[in-house]
């Protein structure tokens, strides 16, 4: 029986999702991306899950889209395959997603990490968009998200040369939230996930939503989204509890609603 392309483990409201195609360095075939989108959407709907961690295992995050599945494709094949739709499903999730990166995050693998909300990386990790060396360019947000994350000049160099950033460089540039020893990546990602999972769940989701929206829209539109989400939180029991607990000088007991 063939191995599942995606592995899932849930532990105290944190779901660990692992890409499982190690022989191909987790190259993102359309089947794998489809399976990943379906898995993450199911976890996004699962009320027992607050935060998701995405890993590629101990030695690689993902070496990009599957070159062997793309090499002889025509524009019509690419159009009909419509992997863009699978990527859009990943970007439309509503719960925090943390990338736990060991080894290479190249091409689509780098774009997968960039699509997450937070990135924890091992010291030996590398982030790159080497598509230019294949005669193509980033196709899943890399040219846009890298420029926003690093500034246009550093992003331009990465995209035009195809040369990667080391994890320490990525950390110094603000792309990586936590830089840890390679064997501590999962533990650090889980710790970060657990901390966020303890926070009031609706506030976490609406704050995340406002931040992500703001990155993709104008300041005016972002402020409007912030205003709407901010007001909505006054309809949650967790807001009443959080403020009452502060005033009564006790620890808040959040219920997630
Ligand atoms: N695709 C397919 N197979 C891959 C692969 C990939 N991206 N990367 C590695 N593999 C396979 C290798 O072919 C090899 O398989 P066998 O020969 O054993 O069968 C196995 O994984 C081990 O790889 P290596 O032998 O090469 O391992 P090394 O440690 O020597 O090198 C490496 C590791 C990561 C430096 C090297 O594998 C490498 O350069 N890989 C390619 C990296 C790359 O160019 N990535 C960008 C791919 S293009 C789109 C959305 C997204 C995209 C496109 C469109 N739309 C929405 C339309 C994204 C495009 C890309 O990501």
Along the chain, the helix and strand elements come as EEHEHHHEEHEEHHEHEHHHH
* Spatial strand arrangement across the major sheet: 1-2-3-4-6-9
Uncertain stretches: none
CATH topology of the largest domain: 2-enoyl-CoA Hydratase, Chain A, domain 1
Give Rg in angstroms.
Answer: 19 Å
Number of continuous helical runs: 12
Largest sheet: 6 strands, mixed
User: Overall mean pLDDT score?
Assistant: 97
Features:
2 domains; 9 strands; six-stranded mixed β-sheet; 48% helix; Lyase 2-enoyl-coa Hydratase, Chain  A, domain 2; alpha/beta; binds 4-(N,N-dimethylamino)cinnamoyl-COA; 2-enoyl-CoA Hydratase, Chain A, domain 1
